[in-house]
Amino acid sequence: MFSNNIEDYPDGIVLPIDKPYRWTSADLVRKIKWAACRHFGKKNLKVGHAGTLDPLATGILLVCIGPATRRAEELQASCKQYIAGVCFGAVTPSYDLEKDIDRICPSEAVTAESLRSILPSFVGEHRQVAPLFSAKSVDGVRAYETARRLLREAAARGEAFDPGDVLQSSLINIYGLELLSFSEHFRAPEPIPATDGHGRINVADVRSYNLKHAEILVDCSKGTYIRALARDLGEALGGGAFLGSLRRTRNGGYDISQALSLEQALEMLR
Questions:
Q1: All domains in the chain, ordered by first residue
Q2: Annotated catalytic, 232?
């Protein structure tokens, strides 16, 4: 429990929270901000986060309260670690399960051995093109806003979605990649409907597709899009891939073992 006086925390508060599945990072910050403002009796208490997580990702999201918001940039600049579940044999416009599969790809060349053989080529500094369905800014407009417009226009014309050459590449650094597991036949989980009250993001149902699946441990720099890494791995193996799951296990010097559930964080602010 925290005291009711924010002045007792001159450096502010950093809460490492295990972000719930299908919550946006902004949703989580709003929830914590409401609780923190009420707890400390402040109407305009600054609350932010250090490093966005996609809605379908879980794991460490650092929520900064009060003066700690000044440390957000410093915390974001740290090395990050993820466990990525990559599905091979199909692609989606968002490179994850927020959008339905729109193209089937060959996956005969995808094996544990072939995947292990190409992983070292992705380690080090690289230029990476972010997913169009992302929060990256393009001429002052969020990329996902442009993506949604292009998707609507393509659907109106009865054409397949083509992201085109919209985003510029960015320099990233991947420090390490390790194949944790590989399956020739991925058993996709049953999607949870968005009406269940625990998140407003729909999840595509891919249970009818024959997909291969790999779990990969990724250590990387700020600005690395794991969805884009999944896309690039699929292309490197002569087909396509998308991100089926993502869990951030390290960020800003915090490990997943230190993360609080949302319920635990709210209890500390009651």
A1: 6-78+253-268 (3.30.2350.10), 80-136+168-251 (3.30.2350.10)
A2: no
